[in-house]
Fold:
Amino acid sequence: MTTPTETLKPESSRTAIGSLPGRSRPGKRRRRVRPKNLTYVLLVLGVVATLLPFVWMLLGSFKTQGELLRRPITWWPEAPTLENYNQWFTNLHIDTFFINSLLVAVVTVLGNLVFCSMVGYALAKMDFPGKQFLFLIVMVTLMVPGVVTFVPLFVMVSKLGLVNTYPALFLPFLAGPLGVFLMRQFMMGIPDSIIEAARIDGASELRIFTRVVMPLCGPPLATLGILTFLTSWNNFLWPLVAAQSQEKYTLPVALSLFSQGQNATNYGLLLAGSVLVIAPIILLFIMLQRYFIQSVAATGIK
Amino acid sequence: MTATSSRPRSAATSRAGGQRTGSSSRRRRQAFIAWGFALPFVALFGVFMLVPLISSFAMSFTDFTSRDVQNPFSVGFVGLEQYSRLFANPQFLHSMLNTGYFVVVGIPLTMAVALGLAVALNSGIKRFRTFFRVGFYTPVVTSIVAIAVVWRFILQPDGLMNTVLGAVGIQGPDWLNSTTWAMPAMILMAVWRNMGTLMIIFLAGLQNVSAEMLEAAEVDGANAWQRFIRITLPTLRPTLLLGAVLLSVGYLQFFEEPFVMTKGGPLDSTLSISYFTFNQFGFGQYGLASAASYVLFVAIALLSLIQFRALRSKD
Structure:
């Protein structure tokens, strides 16, 4: 578990090493074996139950409609078919939705990384009037439910003539409160002496920020990037009203509207659609799982 | 713009006043730079968060409807009328009860499951630990819409869920079409989807539990349960409360599950406050929707405040 992110929160990165191997002394081993095996059995049962819906979804996406309707339910597809996926790629323009989702997520991530680090630096390392107030306001908005800003936001976006445009999909999320909190907390831990030294050398604040501070901020940037990407990729309520024609739908919007239309009972197609929505994020998660889990622990603790 | 206008003045004062004003001019310069750093964020955050937040509050005291969008100044001020309409609306009261049900049952259940998983993963097992963590965390990263689509099939009367239940001799209900069982199904799904986050947070918290203390208690003859209740739980208290706050902010806003799976039915039995608000928005009742959303905001703020109080009281 020695990863670059370990510096972020030492106590949280130890999650994987809680076993304290030295504790089970030889004399006690016999007594401990049984509860440990029981723990394994329970964990395996739990993890199987947790992942069962995904397995069923994946297997189901290769089945024909006839097989999906048959009772009792079947597990392994009898005559595996790619027809459901074929439909999504040829007739249903999943590539458009995919590109929309990706575009919105990437822009949102970049916006948050840049804007939140800038304000985070000011809040952590500079003195200015209104600083406490700014931080307080940002923290309070962490608790604001989405539906509160939803109505005026929609009125505003429609007055600006932005409904059904890309900016409408990402503008409201470019600068979120969570990023400010994360960046500020981390930057507070950067020693003042480093920054003072750069100031004495005559570096401008912008230069200090880009050349001294940001290179140290890998861990919180990774955390913020992952969390923002995840939230944006899975975001549903806002894109549902902001995107009003098919060429602007994101993946979840497309899948949701599709699942309610005339295709509501086309199970194979819906399962394949779900796989296509979930697969990219699960692949990303498996590749970056250590950072994902770190990011949860980082925001959770403190 | 502001920086250039300040420079001649601060230069003049520093010449007159010596070192003290010199540092104050430097301070002012730093304040300008600091606000410069904050500006892009503040501008976006102001326009897309604070303005809507305040307008929504203002709107809740007016009769704003979708017809007033082109001409916002024609709306009338109606005082607390939207709020009194809201609390006289049986559907809204029903949605409050539903949200309460979801929160009161869902939060303890999610926390108990997550704590169980965290303790199990922390109990000294070494093999497959990463696999377990990844496995239990996977539902967290997936899109709720995709999940809901899949769960709708799983929860069909003769679907996967009831097949599995049938294997152990339980006759499962028609989950999503039963006013009794639709909400438990939502809760079950929420537990499944959120236990991973809490498990990770609790695992981090468990690292603060003193191994020496546990060892000493064991030597003194305390059994596993006693050690858990007397040592582990008290140490974990701040982490548990943090988990409760995170969950309540999320669970009080519960919307997407019923939106995709039940449309709030059957007979409004899974209609949440967020869902009610969304419906009013759809009907063009913007004033009423804003009032409902502020009721929810106040509920979230109050619950968090109470929990933070509880968190702080002993530390």
Confidence is low (pLDDT under 50) at residues 1-19 of chain B. The longest helix of chain B spans residues 19-59. The CA atoms of residues 112 and 195 of chain B lie 9 Å apart.
